[in-house]
Amino acid sequence: MRTPHRLALTALVAVLALAGCSGGARTDDSTPATASPSSPSSSPPPASQPPSPPPPSATTETLTPTPTATPTASTTPTPPPDPVMPALHSRTYEQARAELARAGVSTARLKPGAQHKDVTVPRDHDGWYICDTSPRPGAPVTAATTVTVRLARDFSDCTTSFNGYLHQENDPAHTP
User: Fold this and answer.
1) What is the pTM of this model?
2) Would you say 25 and 54 are in contact if contact means Cβ atoms under 8 Å apart?
3) Average pLDDT, stretch 106-125?
4) Fewest CB atoms within 10 A around its CB: which of 13, 80, 131, 164?
5) How are strands ordered across the β-sheet holding 147-152?
6) Is the peptide bond before 79 cis (omega within 30 degrees of 0)?
7) If you count DSSP H runs as helices and E runs as strands, how many of each does the chain have, helices first?
8) pLDDT tens for each residue of 1-25
9) Reduced to 3 states, what is the DSSP secondary structure of residue 127?
């Protein structure tokens, strides 16, 4: 319960500081205006003495903006937006990892897969080409998003498909 008290105190100090920066407190018709800045009566009190409390009319006027200052002081900074999925088509897996890192996407969320059903992606697939990605380029990549890339050994294999198979003879629907 100490936080609301500190927040109120901080807001009050901020409002009083802003009132002091505006060239003096506002006065009504019954109070004479303050002297010019060059006169000795307007010099600030010595640092060893605490400042005198403001008159009641100034306190009422300076506390009025406090409700608008409090929400601003209590809000946390907005988090940065989610990174956006870059266009990785036609790049190698190694280039894609570097591009994702530059875009602010964790490469730990990168999952490789084969473009074709009859192809197995080897462990060393850094030179393989990206045929397709999920999510699509331009989509936001949240912290829970898994980035899936479909790979082919040659880039020309990205457009070759026989019902999802690279080689027509591996397609069960194929009849020679």
Assistant:
1) 0.55
2) yes
3) 95
4) 80
5) 110-114, 147-152, 129-134
6) no
7) 4, 3
8) 455 666 666 776 666 666 665 554 4
9) coil
Q: Are 85 and 135 within 8 A, CB to CB?
A: yes
Show Cβ contacts of residue 21 under 8 Å, excluding neighbours closer than 6 positions.
Answer: none
Q: Taking residues 131-145, what's their average pLDDT?
A: 94
Cα–Cα distance between 125 and 115 in angstroms, integer? 13
| Distance in angstroms (rounded) separating the CA atoms of residues 5 and 140 | 40
Task: Check the CA dihedral 98-102-103-107 and report its sign.
Answer: positive
C-alpha to C-alpha distance for 99 and 89, rounded to whole angstroms = 11
The predicted pLDDT at position 75 comes to 74
3-class DSSP state for residue 168? Answer: helix
Give pLDDT tens digits for 75-115: 778 878 889 999 999 999 999 999 999 999 999 999 999 99
Locate tokens 């946390």: which residue?
A: 76
For the chain, the straight-line distance linking the first and the last C-alpha, in angstroms and rounded, comes to: 80
Q: What angle do CA 79, 80, 85 make, to 5 degrees?
A: 135
Q: ∠23-27-32 over CA atoms, to 5°?
A: 100
pLDDT of residue 92: 97
